[in-house]
Amino acid sequence: MTEEKIGLKDAIKINLRGLLLVYSLVPGNLFMTGLFIVVDVIVSYWDYFFLAKFVNDVVLGSSREVLVWDVILVTIGQTLISHLYNLLHKFWYYSGSNSWELPNAHLNEKIMSMDYEYMESESIHNRRRDIDAMARHSGGGVCKLFWLATPVVEKIIQMMVALGYTAYLVSRSFVAFPGEPVKAAAFVGVFFLAFAVLLTISTKKNKEAEEKMYRYEEANVPNDRQYVFYTTEYMEKEECGKTIRMFHQQNLLCFHFENLMKAINGNVNKMGKENQKRNVWVGAVEAFVSGLVYFLLAVMVSKGAILVGSICLYAGCITNFLHHFRWCLAQCVELYANTKYVKMYLDFLDIPNKKYEGTLPVEKRDDDQFTIEFRHVSFRYPGSDRDVLKDFSIKFHIGERLAVVGKNGSGKTTFIKLLCRLYDPTEGEILLNGIDIRKYDYREYLSLFSVVFQDFKIPALPLGENVAASREYDADRVRSVLERVGLGELLRKMPHGLDTPLYTDFDKNGVDISGGEAQKVAIARALYHDTPFVILDEPTAALDPLAEYDIYSHFDDLVGSKTAVYISHRLSSCQFCNDILVIDEGKAVQRGNHEKLVQDREGLYYTLWNTQAQYYQTEG
Ligand code: ADP
């Protein structure tokens, strides 16, 4: 969480940008909100104005017709305008409800389109969590702007109207003291001095209280993160459920959770106390000011400067002004404090993608003749001081099968991440048909690859959409790949065919699938995309070596003339490949077929093969 102090000018800029962003989320929002504000201002003065006019008309003995119109305007006019106000309020409230969700949609889009390396950065995830925590805990951040800023604008306009009436009232003091301008000015001056002193006290108390309350609110942000961790990320997770039972963690977790709740409630209580203290002060000040206002008005009426009915209007205006002033001040303090969270949100959206995106189209070759070359590639992860790949050079052609084997942590997945440009090499270059892959249009380049990663995920969506990764798809082709990966039987059993949701998390009509079936869906997804390269990056790590061998060799039959890259730390899984690359500590140390590699008794392959052999029943 950033602790830098934001100046007033920057705060205004940040809030304006945030506000425009929130308003742009619902079409017509800005116009309708403007209309809502105007109507709201009219509604708030309608009563005072026409009531004052009515009393004055009675006092002045106006005609019956005028009085009837006064009554109509006070009753029917007020009803109609209130009705319009309610309609507009409904729209405004509806837009406001969207304003909770839509900024999240922006964040999700951002998260899904930012450079992949950010996805592996804990600090990026923490930034997102802080934005969420503030929004969840107190509605803070960009959503709060909508709810705070609109009423602030509305109240400022109301205060301006009140000031206009007050200015007129001041001018009437010269009528109250005709020919005595000094006395008239002194009378109003003393009144305004008292008014200003009381207002200053009230402002100071208000500001102090709001700042303190916001600090307590803020103190609950990290608490909220912990709250989410304990509840949704730990206590409710089935993986953790086993550990909780195994190690009887219940008491330990309850102890920490209760302490956390005490901290959260403690801050909420402190906020309540501050609010109470502030209300006592402000209430007393407002009572004094009201007394002063009535005194001033009584003098003005007694001196014939204003009519008695106008007391309603002027008293209403001044009371409104006081009330709105206090309210606006509180909101402005909150808006100012909230700026930090609006900035956090906007800064997140502004995180620049660093990856250079070329423009070269990828050559569409009928013969699908692609050559990939890693030329002296070294790579270290951002923030790390260790090269994960070191002077790594290999070349392979389309149609070939390449197996990449090596111990866990040797750099196999990193090799795939670089191949797919999820990261760029720190040194050296990767070439596609002799051209640096950075020069290609990234979308086009990516469309050459289908990868089934070790930690693949199948979202709880309909089966067809899952395989096609799209709402629209060629159903026959989806069926055909499902058949090819051995899920034909499962598909036939699905109650709604390809429209059947997978898993029951979000839909009780969904169908739960096993880990093995999920793997096949992931493989079907890779095949459906019919790309020149397909890569299996140990999506089978949870299986035993024999099952993995089965899947890999079966997959090899499925891929036909495509280039397939198989990653595994188990040598047995890849022995069917003619081209096996052995990686060790980020270096390409051996290459050849199984028979050749296993004969090199000095080589790593031989050592690994013999170490792992005890687990296989299919030794070569
Ligand atoms: P393999 O696939 O061979 O098991 P990886 O390519 O996943 O190995 O990892 C190689 C090394 O890089 C490991 O030491 C791993 O800890 C490290 N590593 C992997 N991902 C990251 C990351 N995002 N940040 C820092 N180090 C990483």
Strand content: 5-15%
Number of helices: 19
Terminal residue distance: 57 Å
Taking the sheet with the most strands, its summary is:
6 strands, mixed
**Quaternary structure annotation:** single chain
Structural class, judged by helices and strands? alpha/beta
Q: What is the element string, with H for helices and E for strands?
A: HHHHHHHHHHEEEHEEHEHHHHEHEEEHH
Written description of the protein model:
With 620 residues, this protein is an alpha/beta fold. Among the domains are: 8-25 and 98-222 and 271-349, no CATH class; 371-448 and 531-616, Rossmann fold. Helices cover 63% and strands 9% of the residues. It has 19 helices and 10 strands. The strands form 2 sheets. It has a 6-stranded mixed beta sheet with strand order 6-7-8-3-9-10, with helices on both faces. Strands 2-1-4-5 form a 4-stranded antiparallel beta sheet, with helices on one face. A hairpin with a 2-residue loop joins strand 9 and strand 10. Helix 5 (122-138) packs across helix 7. The longest helix is centred in the middle third of the chain and has 55 residues, at 181-235. The radius of gyration is 36 Å and the shape is elongated. Bound molecules: adenosine-5'-diphosphate. Adenosine-5'-diphosphate (ADP) binds next to helix 11.
